[in-house]
Design goal:
The protein is α+β, with helices and mostly antiparallel strands. It is built from 19 helices and 10 strands. 62% of the residues lie in helices and 9% in strands. The strands form 2 sheets. Strands 1, 2, 3, 4, 5, 6, 7 and 8 form an 8-stranded mixed beta sheet that branches. The protein has a two-stranded antiparallel ribbon with strand order 9-10. Strand 2 and strand 3 form a beta hairpin. Helix 1 packs across helix 3, helix 10 packs antiparallel against helix 11 and helix 15 packs across helix 16. It is globular, with a radius of gyration of 26 Å.
Length: 548
């Protein structure tokens, strides 16, 4: 892979390894700083020596990777809230008995049958300043105590730590929240809370107000409630109000990614903006105007959609792609991706452990790397078959790249994913374009009825198609046992297979066969490890039988 020859690739990989080591090993920050300073001194010495002696290039490259590795370790430690003395996790009393807690609502989450749920920032505990994020559960009742984002709330309650999953194959919600640096939740009633009249008007507040304005204008245009909730998810990534039945249909059909704003959605927006800006000539000045317009449009989209992490990741990624295209470096798209990964993780290293982050970059990487190889396997003669084949190869490339991660986290596989993606792609393209226009108009006033009806009916048709595919539940394979060993070895097999498929050779065939053997070893080891507890339990039952 030529991308590995690029120096930034080795720096980024070393940086990622540093974050991973810091996450699992948790070395002391003093030790990491000492090693970083030592490696930085060696790096500086080699930097001046390598100009005189080219033989030191390899050692200089290794020292660069080592420095990047320790920067990764320290970056995670500095960005870990629980290491900060001011973090509420250090207030042990707040977890033991009710305390007067003050917090500011930052983000609206999906409500359940009993509570409205928010992400909040802790301000004070018993008049002592603390920091950190928590989940706030406010019980639903008839009290007319309106709560909006930006409200500073005071309530006497107890912090409840997140409970870990007892089943090893079950989704660990506590670990999921911990990776988002949320370590506790609070539960309260509206009648118990005191809302400060002074609203904290930050960017999240204005984003929330803008979002509310869009919803109000869509409601004025008599947009159907169910279709509007799906529209808000498709265009703005707001899934809070979607019904569980619709989410279930999208899961079973293998199109959950459509409801989560990702590279697909931001890519559509970028293509739409490029289409609007097409009359501008591709001169140096014209290209710069296009770049600024794209960056501003993506930033506005991020604000309108609520500044959620998936949106921010996708916006940053495509902003770098736009910059790379402006600099006429479209051939180095892998390098552009590496720069975006490095920049995002420098500010938010915990994104590396977020499923959405992993799936977004894996899907895009495999589309860029594997799809051209699959595409060249067959050259259709007709336009329709070419379109279907291109859609199939894109879908297969993305699915192959993300399949091991999906199996590792979700333990299920929708067998009809490729059929669904081919069917919905033309309709989804229209929905995204129409949706962008409707949402832009809804920022200022109620959109025209004709446009709203077209948009609404297209979403209704999309839901109908996805529901039809989801009815074939026999194609959804559930409860797939898939551990970390499988995850690593299957990715080794996919990478070796792709390299071999691109240009077969004897050495590549040997490498592919070795990875197949490694995969088989992981299966054998897992099977043997799973048998061990069963054998021990059997022996214990025999001992009890003889005792009797």
């Amino acid at each position: 892979m030529k991308v590995l020859d690029f120096p930034l690739a080795k720096i980024t990989i070393s940086f990622l390894l540093g974050i991973i080591v810091s996450y699992y090993v948790k070395p002391s920050i003093l030790t990491a700083v000492i090693f970083l300073i030592s490696s930085a001194i060696v790096f500086c010495c080699l930097y001046f020596l390598v100009a005189k002696n080219k033989k030191l290039n390899i050692i200089f490259g290794i020292s660069t990777s080592i420095v990047s590795f320790f920067i990764g370790i320290i970056t995670l430690q500095l960005q870990t809230d629980s290491y900060q003395k001011s973090n509420y996790i250090n207030s042990k009393v707040a977890f033991e008995k009710p305390q007067l807690i003050t917090f500011t609502l930052r983000e609206k989450l999906k409500s359940n049958d009993f509570n409205d749920r928010y992400v909040a920032i802790i301000n004070q505990i018993e008049r002592k300043t603390y920091t950190g994020r928590i989940i706030v559960n406010i019980q639903k009742d008839s009290t007319k105590n309106k709560v909006i984002l930006g409200n500073t709330i005071r309530v006497k309650t107890i912090l409840q730590p997140n409970t870990s999953s007892k089943n090893p194959n079950q989704f660990d919600y506590a670990k999921y929240l911990s990776n988002k640096q949320i370590y506790a939740q609070v539960y309260c009633r509206k009648s118990e809370i005191t809302i400060n009249k002074n609203i904290k008007k930050d960017i999240w507040y204005y984003s929330s107000r803008l979002h509310s304005r869009i919803i109000n204008n869509l409601e004025k245009a008599h947009f159907s409630k169910d279709e509007m909730n799906v529209a808000l998810a498709l265009i703005l990534g707001q899934q809070q109000e979607i019904s569980p039945d619709i989410i279930k249909d999208y899961q079973y059909s293998g199109t959950t990614h459509v409801l989560s704003v990702s590279g697909l959605h931001v890519g559509f927006i970028m293509l739409f903006i490029n289409f609007i800006l097409k009359p501008i000539p591709n001169t140096r000045k014209g290209s710069f105007i296009k770049l600024i317009s794209i960056l501003i449009s993506l930033a506005i989209f991020a604000v309108i959609s609520g500044l959620s992490p998936p949106v921010l990741r996708s916006v940053v990624m495509f902003s770098f792609l736009a910059i790379g295209n402006h600099l006429r470096r479209s051939g180095n798209i892998y390098h552009t991706l590496l720069v975006s990964i490095l920049l995002i993780l420098l500010f938010e290293p915990y994104f590396l452990f977020d499923v959405g982050f992993q799936l977004s970059y894996l899907a895009l990487f495999f589309i860029l790397w594997l799809q051209p190889i699959l595409k060249n396997l067959w050259t259709p003669k007709h336009k329709i078959s070419t379109y279907i084949w291109n859609a199939l190869t894109v879908s297969f490339a993305a699915q192959i790249g993300t399949l091991p991660v999906c199996l590792y986290y979700f333990h299920q596989f929708p067998g009809l994913f490729f059929v669904t993606n081919i069917i919905i792609l033309p309709l989804l393209s229209f929905i995204m374009i129409a949706g962008i226009i409707v949402m832009i108009l809804a920022v200022f006033y109620s959109p025209p009825v004709i446009l709203v009806v077209l948009f609404e009916k297209s979403i209704y048709l999309l839901n109908l198609m996805i529901h039809f595919v989801a009815t074939f539940e026999s194609f959804v394979i559930r409860d797939i046992s898939f551990n970390f060993y499988y995850l690593v070895t299957i990715y080794l097999l996919i990478i070796a297979g792709t390299i071999w498929l691109n240009k077969p050779s004897f050495n590549k065939t040997i490498s592919l066969l070795i990875t197949i053997i490694i995969v088989q070893i992981s299966f054998i080891y897992t099977k043997k490890r799973n048998r061990e507890p069963t054998r021990i339990n059997h022996l214990q039952r025999q001992e009890k039988h003889f005792d009797i």
